[in-house]
Design brief:
The chain is of the alpha/beta class. It folds into 2 domains: 154 residues, Rossmann fold (3-Layer(aba) Sandwich), CATH 3.40.50; 170 residues, Glycogen Phosphorylase B (Rossmann fold). 42% of the residues lie in helices and 15% in strands. The protein contains 15 helices and 11 strands. The strands form 2 sheets. A 6-stranded parallel sheet has the order 8-7-6-9-10-11, with helices on both faces. A 5-stranded parallel sheet has the order 1-2-3-4-5. The C terminus is likely disordered.
């Protein structure tokens, strides 16, 4: 029996990435441990039966429940990582973010440590470049599709009716956790500047804090634009389809980003995007399923939305669907299995889509 892989974490609330990846790996015959712990006791007990420690979002291992990093939590994480390497575990780190959101000095130090002892995996060539020299050893494995994971039975008209949107509205969707770096207030202002009375911006997701939700509500109230519709709160899995089936385009105006689960969710539902040319999002424009813009340029977001609305959203959505179809989890899991086994991995990206 081959040595098992221990995911850290095995699953993340609100994000099915780990469930989909490790389910596919198990179907390939890779043993997956359910209850791994990054502690000296667990590492000592599991040596010999577990060969790979696979980290995602490492801050989940060292930040306290309230999000703080303490000397004790940081020291315990660093000591366990070094111990794991010395015990002969193969460490693999999928770098979803170059740094945690709202990162501090200790986050940077711990990430630098990981880059010295773990094999990085990134989702695109741009992410590899952002790691600098550490990226030279990184494997490039695309983010898998979410197609088929969420219920998807509602029609466009029914979804719009349930969200109080008219059939002729031109609906833009922002979806995800409301956080400061995601630039929602600038998005609201960009939509407010658009003259088309048919445009609607739907914002759906739970604020990371009361302050984040209050800031967004205050900006919408200040502008007094009833074309902006806020659905701030947890979106159950069965309701995800409502927002993606009701919209024409998904707009994700991040100020900094490496990879985006929300963008992959848009592709999975066959929806075109408006995104900054940052990280892996730039490849979506090259693939023909997104309109990109310079995140640092004044009025660039407003112009990109205008250009996207002037295109055929259905055609862009069809290209998004084709891109999603190339990102099946069986392919993704096979690439990870090669990384676990020290075998060379290809470095695939998103092939350009045809204009049809």
């Amino acid at each position: 029996m081959r040595a098992a892989v221990a995911p850290l974490p095995r699953r993340v609330q609100g994000n099915p990435y780990c469930d989909l990846l490790y389910g596919a790996l198990e179907r390939l015959g890779v043993p997956v441990v359910e209850d791994a712990e990054l502690t000296p006791r667990w590492l000592w007990r599991s040596r010999g039966t577990v060969g790979v420690l696979h980290l995602h979002w490492p801050e989940l291992c060292y930040r306290e429940r309230d999000g703080r990093v303490t000397p004790r939590s940081a020291g315990a994480f660093a000591a366990s990582v070094v111990l794991a390497a010395n015990l002969g575990y193969r460490l693999v780190w999928t770098v979803h973010n170059a740094l945690p959101h709202e990162a501090g000095r200790v986050d940077r130090l711990l990430h630098a440590l990981l880059l010295r002892v773990a094999r990085p995996v990134v989702h695109c060539a741009a992410a590899r470049r952002e790691l600098g020299r550490a990226g030279d050893s990184a494997a490039v494995i695309p983010h898998g599709t979410y197609a088929g994971h969420y219920p998807d039975s509602v029609t466009r008209d029914d979804a719009r009716a349930r969200l109080d949107l008219a059939p002729g509205d031109r609906v833009l969707l922002w979806f995800g956790q409301v956080r400061p770096y995601k630039a929602l207030e600038p998005l609201v202002r960009a939509v407010h500047a658009l003259r088309d009375p048919r445009v609607r911006l739907v914002v759906a997701g739970r604020p990371v804090s009361a302050a984040a939700g209050r800031s967004l509500r205050d900006e919408v109230a200040r502008l007094g634009d009833d074309r902006v519709r806020l659905h701030l709160g947890h979106v159950p899995d069965e309701d995800v389809q409502l927002f993606f089936r009701a919209c024409d385009l998904v707009v994700l105006p991040y100020k900094r980003v490496l990879t985006s689960g929300a963008a992959m969710l848009a592709l999975s539902f066959g929806r075109g995007l408006v995104v900054p040319r940052l990280g892996c999002l730039a490849e979506l424009e090259q693939a023909g399923c997104a309109v990109g813009y310079d995140a640092d340029a004044d009025d660039a977001l407003e112009g990109a939305i205008d250009r996207a609305l002037a295109t055929d959203p259905d055609a862009m959505g069809a290209r998004a669907q084709r891109v999603s179809g190339r990102l099946r989890w069986e392919r993704i899991a096979s690439a990870y299995a090669r990384v676990y086994a020290h075998r060379p991995t290809p470095t695939p990206g998103l092939e350009p889509a045809t204009a049809s």
